[in-house]
Amino acid sequence: MRKSAIEELAPEARRSGRRAGPSRTRSAVLAAAQRRFAELGNDRTTLRSIAAEAQVDQKLVGYFFGSKQALFVAATELPFDPGAAIQHVLGGDGDARGARLACLIVEMLENPMAGPRLIGLVRAAAAEPEAARMVRDLFGRQIWGPAAAKLPVKDPDLAVSLIASQALGLVLARYVIQVEPLASMPADKIVDLMAPTLQPLLTADKTGGRYARTRATNR
Amino acid sequence: MRKSAIEELAPEARRSGRRAGPSRTRSAVLAAAQRRFAELGNDRTTLRSIAAEAQVDQKLVGYFFGSKQALFVAATELPFDPGAAIQHVLGGDGDARGARLACLIVEMLENPMAGPRLIGLVRAAAAEPEAARMVRDLFGRQIWGPAAAKLPVKDPDLAVSLIASQALGLVLARYVIQVEPLASMPADKIVDLMAPTLQPLLTADKTGGRYARTRATNR
Which residues of A fall within a CB distance of 8 Å from B136? Predict the structure, then answer.
């Protein structure tokens, strides 16, 4: 059933007189998506234009990737090397880890190439549960997992998820919803605001860190 | 031009033999949207079903509200009284303001009625720039503005935008992208994690608060 749908919908398979195979068609769609998304961004790119560029039927794009948001996530590569980033943040002066991580996050989000890609991933995740699952897998496998393995804190998985929460909040508040004055503040001021919140999440602490504090009784 | 489009597309105006007026048609669409979104949520509600329930042409829904995300924001009322919430957080013991605000945010997000509505607003804002603008206006007018007017800190607008960033990060990390262990942690543990980050944003501080600290030189 599925096989015949691919054969029917992939003109390249028909034209060439042989079976192109699903993986070749899928790669063609992915390459076309990468070009279109890079050129126009997620909002202005249509599934129709991707299908046209890949020379396949639009239904086939849906068959392989489900939706535009899911295709966007599948077509997006992380614009940095997570391993090198983790090493940069955790190496050097221990007291400046929060500042280095804040600087890294803000510089990437402000970068004209990397920023739109990262912000686009967050927006895609928010738009659709399937894209959210894909972003969780992508970030989990490539960033959060390796980071948690290196963090010298009591509960590294929790620390990483709290760091993720800080970065996601910044993306939404400053770049997407554009809450003032956060949205128009200089980048270095944002770094100063984030650094002290990130620092305790990156540092070994005999008490277990602020984020392992027992529940306040006085509420 | 626009007027004739409304007249042409609104069957109720034609049927009744008199002009229903754009505001009456708009209200009918809004009421239908509120019922459909409340019943099925944003993801599973279609513009077509809203148009059918309001007994208007689907094009007219687009004419009045632009897109489904924008209609979702327009149809959503805040599920709490911001004035009472601000009073609750700022009244009482000053040292427990962070805990009270964290408790309020988490309780609302966990509430089966209020949570999906608030999370839906954040998701709509992330999905589409027009919906983002509407959410910024809604939150700004109803929550952030009144809160900033009452906050006893040096830069209340900045403090409010940082609080917003914390809440938005929680929404995305725990409820939308579902980063573990944050996603499956008990609600009271989340409150304990958030409270110390929120506390300095809610308290007068002669030094201007942690978030007004000058830039660290040691990076």
Answer: 177-179
pLDDT score of B30 more than 90: no
**Contacts (Cβ under 8 Å, ≥6 apart) of B46:** B68
Within 13 Å and on the Cβ side, how many CA atoms surround A181? 12
Is A90 within 8 Å of A202 (Cβ atoms)? yes
- What percent of chain A stands above pLDDT 70? 84
Looking at every residue in chain A, the average pLDDT score rounds to 82
Chain A residues within 8 A of B100 when measuring between CB atoms? 219
- Give just the sign of the alpha carbon dihedral A92, A95, A99, A102: positive
User: What ipTM does the predicted assembly reach?
Assistant: 0.79
The answer to whether the CB atoms of A215 and B191 lie below 8 A apart is: yes
User: What global pTM score does this model have?
Assistant: 0.80
Q: Which two tokens stand for residue B211?
A: 């978030």
Interface size A-B, in CB pairs within 8 Å, comes to 158
Kindly state the tokens that stand for A149.
């393995």
Residue A212 in this model has a pLDDT that exceeds 60? no
Selected residue of B154, B168, B184, B211 to mutate for chain A interface (largest A Cβ count, 10 A): B168
